[in-house]
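Hi F.,

I've been meaning to write this up properly since the lab meeting, where we talked about keeping a consistent format for the predictions we share between groups. The idea is simple: the sequence comes first, exactly as it goes in, then the structure tokens exactly as they come out, then a line or two of notes. No screenshots and no reformatting. I'm using this chain as the first example so we have something concrete to point to.
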Amino acid sequence: MKKIFLIIVCALLYNCKTYSQDITGKWKVTLTTDSDVETYSDVYWEFTSDGKCIQRMLDDNSVYDTHTYTLSHTTCDDGVQDKDLHLSMIGLQDGIKLCFEFNGMDTVNNRTTMVITNYDEAEPILLLKF
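Output, unedited:
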């Protein structure tokens, strides 16, 4: 029983560590449209290896907002441990906490996408690495 528990904990920690490394980089935020053409927000998210998410303007790279972020198996609204991954972002200027469920990451034909869902929204957010 202890071995099974240890294996599960190691697998969960490995998933966190792997995604924490994979999340670093620049991500365009796709907007939902009625057409088959993808459109993007004017702001992209840049996740750094030191735990910051810098939101920058696509047109001139100026900083729009900056957050610290963590990716863990702990819900960010009430601190409960569970099997799902959660992305917690805290604004450095205003201290506002943004909570997302991390739905996954996928690479197909050299196109890497990440899907997260804000705790307060039903619609997932699709991010495209560039």
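Notes:
The two ends are 44 Å apart (CA to CA).
The longest helix spans residues 2-22.

If this format works for you, I'll send the rest the same way.

G.
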